[in-house]
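Please predict the structure of the following assembly.
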Amino acid sequence: MSERRDIVIAGGGMVGISLALELSRVLPPEISILLVEGFALPAGGGDYHPSFDARSTALSYSSRLVYEQMQVWDELQQWLCPIEQIHVSSRGRFGSTLLRAADHGWPALGYVVENAWLGSVLASALARNPRVEVCSPARVVAARAAAAGLSLELEGEGAQPLQAGLLLVADGARSSLCRQLGVAHSDKPYAQHALVANIVSARPHAGCAFERFTDEGPLALLPLVPAAAAQQRSALVWTLPPERAASLVDCPQQMFLAELQRRFGYRLGRLRQVGERSVYPLSLVQAAEQVRQGVVVMGNAAHALHPVAGQGFNLALRDVVELARVLAAGVAAGRAPGDLGVLQQYRERQRADQQRTIGFSDRVPALFMHNDPVLGLGRDLALAGLDIAPPLKQAFVRHAAGMAALRGHGHG
Ligand SMILES: Cc1cc2nc3c(=O)[nH]c(=O)nc-3n(C[C@H](O)[C@H](O)[C@H](O)COP(=O)(O)OP(=O)(O)OC[C@H]3O[C@@H](n4cnc5c(N)ncnc54)[C@H](O)[C@@H]3O)c2cc1C
């Protein structure tokens, strides 16, 4: 007879660990939670882990509130850079606009954190958490619907067959568990790749994030905390046609910097140094089903977005909070965590937020890449319009900060 856990989380990336921490916070102690992660989780940071690579993530204000409640924010704050303003511009065109946190009475428009640091903080919070059992390095290799939930097969450290009342699938964008369970995905390739690297500039970023739309695709430079005294660092996310990304990822540093400077301009002075470069193919991937009896698909396994608006992880975190809230209410009412009615409630409550956020991330790059002069004019007017129409700007900023979708956190 195999052992049973009430909740099994398959995948301990940024989403899976956040999910474990939030569930342990809101569910009663008799609900058992197990997290299974394929790679050895970094106990004090340092070890390589694919979810926590050289990328950085722009956390929205709503994500800050979530991490405050999980009590990891104070530690995270040691190495994150508040975004005090966002400069949005369009290469070779007239429009530009400046969004400033101070104009909205907020401490910041968002916070840039290096994934390695986020991973290290989350993994140590997990290690300190007595409520969550961790099985790592180990993988869930098979999942089948069974009488009261799911039958799981695991491979790796401490692996043994398990019964789970609820399986939370958080194994990333090319989810092998979704394939196992017959959950289909739609895949809309953008024919663009994201080139990611850290950049050292001569001039300070002064807490400014730059979002620049070019005919090749959007280019973002997000402010980072200096790694060494007086070293001004920003995180680059440069969306490019695949062949351009391939040529720029390996070219000599000076050639790379000259090309970036030509595209970005001199708002940060001379660009002096580029760190390790990596390239990610971009597509909009969505699971056809997110809930079933005893199963919820979360994070990138449910929806992987274009990174232009920095929304993918922030949306996933709002999903995490809502799922935890709905499960807690269900358990309090005497229903099992895997109860389809409870899980459908979660799906309904997050549907509008997901549709809005995915639509926004999908439309913005397309709008700004068109060479059509009429669309170009519209886009310039839109940027200029943001500057002259404060209510429009307020709405844009609220969306970018994830506040538009925020529920029940005691903030607007
Ligand atoms: C270039 C780029 C920039 C981005 N910038 C931002 C940003 O600024 N803001 C933002 O909000 N979002 C951003 N995103 C999106 C963000 O990176 C994703 O939302 C996030 O990585 C999703 O994490 P995840 O935990 O769902 O998946 P993953 O990070 O892929 O984690 C999945 C985990 O599951 C494990 N695993 C896989 N299979 C199994 C198995 N069978 N059993 C057990 N474990 C398994 C893997 O080892 C891995 O640790 C960006 C994305 C890209 C590509």
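Residues 10-16, 36-39, 50-51, 55, 57-58, 139-140, 170-173, 176-177, 194, 196, 237, 280, 299-300, 307, 310-314, 316 surround flavin-adenine dinucleotide (CB under 6 Å). The two ends are 50 Å apart (CA to CA).
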